[in-house]
Write the structure tokens for this entry.
Amino acid sequence: MSDVVDPLDSLPSAIVADVLGRVADAGDIAASRLASRALLAASYHCPRVRLSAAARARRLRGRGGGDGATAFRLAAANVASLLGTHLRSLALDASQGHGCPDQAIWAKHAEFDEANDLHLTSGESVAAWAATAAGPALREVDIADFWPQSCWRKAEALPVISRLCHNLSTLRLRKAWLSVDGLRVMPNLTHLALESIRLDDENLSTLNECFPCLHTLNLIGVGGLKHPKIHLPQLKNCHWEVSDVPRSLAIHAPNLVYLELKCVRPEILILDTPSVSTLKLTIDKLGPTVQVDGLVNLKNLRIESSDLNSLLRLFSESRDVRTLDLELPASAGRNELYEAVEPELFSSATEVKLSPRFSYELMRRIVFSMTSYDCRSCLRKLLVHMPPSILTTCPFIPLVNNCAPSCEVTVLFHADSSDATRQAAASSWPLRFPDITWQWGTWQ
């Protein structure tokens, strides 16, 4: 009886290894080794691996092998040792614990867990895999810690990674308390994401010093900051969500082109970002000191705030803003809706997106104002959210009248709107405004 021919034998080993790397899940890769000799050989050259504590525990429990909690950190070290210099991307996820109901309760109520079997950002845990041959070869690392174990322990993940993974280009750390003592310069790191992190770097001075070549920086829910200042000359993309604790925020980044900033009411806000073309800002109200003189290239502006009038004047006046995306907080009252925007704001914008909370109550204000002032605009694209209603007449006629020729208007009806309302609008509005290109859709 002849041996069965393995169809994967005809493929180059590098391609088979890359396929396994796209699978990434360590359990699936291990299972695939039994299916093919080619997969078995390629599994030792897999460039990307992802390990999940919850998924691993479910597999072991399914085989009657316990929850495997104490073995998870050892598994990460074993995978790194096995793959060595072939490993380029390593993802470790303990954020869901072992997948047990009691651990979900711990995470929900932020109770402490004195065990350390899932504390993945500790110096010992990181060194277990970073000190192998895989450490210098790694290009991407993603670690999600188990918050009940990590929230009360200061971890040395950053210093250890900077010492052992000096070729790393992308690093993402979540749900941990991180120390920066002993952190070394990482000139190859271009992408950094810290999410739900307590960081012992209150002014971000160590981050600026040790990660000077960052192109992308995401700081989402990072605590421990007092007067943070981002000063990164090569930074191009930044997403920063900060609490109401810091009294001042500053960004000095001459090459930054995309900025998404979510804050509350900082007393001092400094944006020294002359190259920014897209700004997405969520803020309660402006503080007494604001410096945004450097936004000379701003083209696309999205603002969510109850202080829209002041913000729009600050960011759009004397600037060639072409796209406006406007939103109000859910807590905004009717008076704020009516007073938020002046119609002259549309005089220079070519594309405007009006959020659901704008598109009806505020639309009445715009209609009245534009009827009075006849504010000629150059709008070429307009997106409007319609509320659930039986309204069949176009509620924004003056705005459409003042659009540029061949304007494209997208109307999104609420999911609860009746078919009769949609059909009436779709049949009558294009007849009244034949020069407009109409598009229809739905929003929830």
About this structure: The chain is about 30% helix and 25% strand. Confidence is low (pLDDT under 50) at residues 99-110. Residues 7-46 form one domain.
